[in-house]
Design a protein that fits this description.
The chain is an alpha+beta fold. The chain contains 2 helices and 7 strands; from the N terminus they run H-H-E-E-E-E-E-E-E.
Length: 114
C-alpha cells in the first residue's frame, strides 16, 4: 500500500513539474507547402459593373474588353493581373490602374463609378 502511495505521489510530482513545459514552447504554425510551390497561378472569378455615365475600355493582360454604360461582365483572371484603362475619360487617362486582382475579389462585383 505504501508503495502505491509513493508511486502515485511521485507521478503527481512529475506531472506537475512538466506542466509548464508546453506553455513555454513556441506553437507551430501549419502552412500548406503547396501554396508556395504552385506551378499554375490561382484564378479569381469576379464581376465588373459599369455604373458610370462613360464607356470604359479595359486592358487585362493581353485582352481588351469594352464595358458599355450599365453593362456587367464576368472575368476569370490570375491573381496579380492588373486591369488598366485603355481609353481616356474625363477622370482617367490611358494606362491608369483600375485594380490589381487579389484573391479577396473571388465571387465579388467591382462597381465602376465616376
Amino acid at each position: 500500500m505504501k508503495l502505491k502511495i509513493a508511486f502515485a505521489a511521485s507521478l503527481i510530482a512529475f506531472s506537475l513539474d512538466l506542466s509548464y513545459v508546453p506553455l513555454s514552447q513556441a506553437q507551430s504554425i501549419v502552412v500548406p507547402v503547396h501554396a508556395f510551390f504552385s506551378k499554375t497561378p490561382r484564378k479569381v472569378k469576379f464581376g465588373l459593373i459599369n455604373r458610370s455615365g462613360e464607356l470604359f475600355e479595359l486592358k487585362m493582360g493581353g485582352q481588351i474588353i469594352t464595358l458599355n454604360v450599365g453593362q456587367s461582365v464576368q472575368v476569370n483572371l490570375p491573381v496579380g493581373t492588373q486591369i488598366l484603362f485603355n481609353n481616356s475619360t474625363e477622370h482617367h487617362k490611358v494606362g491608369d490602374l483600375l485594380i490589381q486582382v487579389v484573391d479577396t475579389y473571388r465571387d465579388a462585383n467591382v462597381v465602376l463609378h465616376n
